[in-house]
Amino acid sequence: MKYPLTLRVCVLFLAFITLGLFGNSTLLAQGPDDNNSSIIFTSNDNLRSAPSVIFRIENTLTPPSEYFEYLEMNFFPPSSIEQISPGVFHIYDLSPFNTYTLEFKGNGPMLLGVTTADISKILRHILGFGALDPDRLIAADATCDGRVSAADLVDIRKVILGKAPAFGCGVSWKFVPASSEFLYVGTTIDLGTIKAIKIGHAN
After folding, report:
1. Could you tell me what percentage of the chain is helix, strand and coil, using 3-state DSSP and rounding each to the nearest 5?
2. Is the pLDDT of residue 22 over 60?
3. Residue 46 domain flag
4. Does 139 lie in the same domain as 66?
5. How far is the first Cα of the chain from the last one, in angstroms, to the nearest whole number?
6. Which of 154, 155, 161, 180 has its CA 20 to 30 A from that of 49?
7. Is 195 strand, coil or helix?
8. Is residue 32 domain-shared with residue 115, that is, in the same domain?
């Protein structure tokens, strides 16, 4: 049975429109009670490519592949994160016009990278024979009292000799900044670089 040309054209046109509506990974559904409201369901790939937040982490000791097993990142409210390259992170699945807080913590072995050479370096700094740079000043403050003194040498020595399970700080890493708060307005944000500093590793 042959159909008129106009009918076949209409069928092809409807098929084209249907593919255009349902072939996309994003679906738009109207709300039942409000003609102006809509819900958008988007695939994970689209969420990752949407405007989001990026930041970098640099540490004073190990390559990123070795260090990040000790890294703990907390987000409030919860969101998704992935490492897009060594030391570079991407936060996605964010809600516009929300304020987010990002906190960093680091555990792992207290003596990771810490040796008697670090004690010698800190001692030279205390005696005035060699100043430590800002990152190593933070690393040398094992007691977390805000200064570098003989107390830090004693603290580190106790851990090396196995006479204490942890530094006076109680943690293995410090972060600068330790937390970051930002308002996400729907555009890409670069939080910059967070420094992960291994306590005790001043050499």
Report:
1. 30, 30, 40
2. no
3. no
4. yes
5. 88
6. 180
7. strand
8. no
- Rounded to an integer, what is the distance from CA 112 to the centroid of its chain? 21
- Cα–Cα dist 81/56, whole Å: 12
In a domain, 145, yes or no: yes
Is the separation of the CB atoms in 94 and 42 below 8 Å? no
pTM across the whole model:
0.71
Q: Check residue 13 and give its pLDDT.
A: 44
Range of the domain at 203: 51-203
Looking at the domain assignment, is residue 151 inside a domain? yes
Bridge partners (DSSP) of residue 29 are 39
**How many Å apart are CA 190 and CA 54, to the nearest integer?**
5
Which of the residue ranges 14-23, 106-115, 156-165 would you say has the lowest mean pLDDT? 14-23
82 and 146 share one domain: yes
Q: Which helix (H) or strand (E) holds 175?
A: strand 173-176
The number of distinct structural domains making up the chain is 2
Helix or strand or coil: residue 96? coil
Residue 130: is its pLDDT beyond 70? yes
Q: For residues 52 and 94, is the Cβ–Cβ distance under 8 A? A: yes
Query: Residue 87 has what pLDDT?
Result: 86
Closest to 56 measured CA to CA, from 99, 86, 76, 81: 86
How big is the CA angle at 126 (ends 121 and 131), to the nearest 5 degrees? 65
CB atoms within 10 A of CB 106: 21
